[in-house]
């Protein structure tokens, strides 16, 4: 099976551009292609058994998401990690994810709240044998339960883009602030409680936003210089 067949095996009708995007994106987020790695269109096209056109389209999409930079006479490279950019991305995600959670809150069912509690329970179980990368993946799963009910598609798109951007900038904030994970689990439970008791959506929005901002503030306190 070729690489492009492997990239699109689960969705046989996926476009070549989408397959190239998924292939490159996975290698960036898994750090196979680290910061500064040069993305040579011809080499990637050959690896995926396709022309450079869909690869170029995929690169442009990744550039729009902030995972790739393009320099004249240099070409495309995986974006370098920048502390300021990372902090801005976290702050922005706090705003849009908080707003999406607030809008979604009145529509979240009891079954979905129970699902969120189950995921948060998994996070709590990870605390004694802590893997920051696994914790981050499950943490995203938790938040998705709460914000995916948002009825504003533009806001949801911004949240999804924010998570994608973060995955390219840092494997896991909890690498640097592992102690923050315990507070995070407690705050998750508090947000669930606000939603279950029918708190004002603005209160829920601010709780979700501040939850994200506490994490970035802890990161800044732990790593004042990158």
Question: In short, what is this structure?
Answer:
The chain is 67% helix and 4% strand.
Judged by helices, strands and strand pairing, the structural class is mainly alpha
Low-confidence stretches: 8-12
Query: What average pLDDT do the residues reach?
Result: 87
Q: Strands of the largest sheet, in order across it? A: 1-3-2
Helix content: 55-70%
Describe this entry's structure for a reader:
With 226 residues, the chain is mostly helical. It has 2 domains: 3-78, Arc Repressor Mutant, subunit A (Orthogonal Bundle); 83-222, Four Helix Bundle (Hemerythrin (Met), subunit A) (Up-down Bundle). The protein has 10 helices and 3 strands; from the N terminus they run ααβααββαααααα. It has helices at residues 3-7, 16-29, 41-48, 52-64, 83-104, 110-126, 132-147, 153-169, 180-196, 201-222, and strands spanning 38-39, 68-71, 75-78. The protein has a 3-stranded antiparallel beta sheet. A hairpin with a 3-residue loop joins strand 2 (68-71) and strand 3. Helix 6 packs antiparallel against helix 9 and helix 9 (180-196) runs antiparallel to helix 10.
């Amino acid at each position: 099976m070729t690489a492009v067949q492997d990239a699109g095996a689960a969705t046989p009708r996926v476009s070549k551009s989408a397959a190239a995007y998924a292939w490159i994106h996975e290698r960036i987020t898994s750090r196979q292609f680290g910061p500064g790695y040069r993305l040579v269109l011809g080499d990637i096209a050959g690896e995926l058994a396709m022309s450079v056109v869909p690869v170029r389209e995929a690169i442009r999409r990744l550039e729009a998401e902030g995972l790739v930079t393009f320099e004249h006479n240099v070409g495309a490279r995986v974006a370098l990690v920048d502390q300021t950019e990372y902090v801005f991305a976290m702050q922005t995600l706090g705003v849009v994810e908080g707003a999406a959670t607030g809008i979604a809150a009145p529509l979240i069912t009891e079954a979905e709240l129970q699902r969120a509690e189950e995921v948060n329970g998994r996070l709590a179980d990870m605390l004694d044998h802590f893997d920051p990368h696994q914790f981050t993946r499950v943490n995203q799963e938790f938040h998705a339960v709460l914000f995916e009910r948002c009825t504003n598609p533009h806001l949801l798109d911004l949240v999804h883009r924010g998570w994608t951007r973060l995955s390219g900038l840092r494997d896991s904030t909890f690498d640097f602030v592992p102690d923050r994970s315990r507070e995070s689990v407690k705050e998750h439970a508090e947000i669930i409680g606000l939603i279950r008791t029918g708190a004002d959506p603005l209160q829920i929005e601010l709780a979700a936003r501040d939850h994200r901002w506490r994490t970035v503030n802890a990161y800044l306190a732990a790593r004042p210089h990158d």
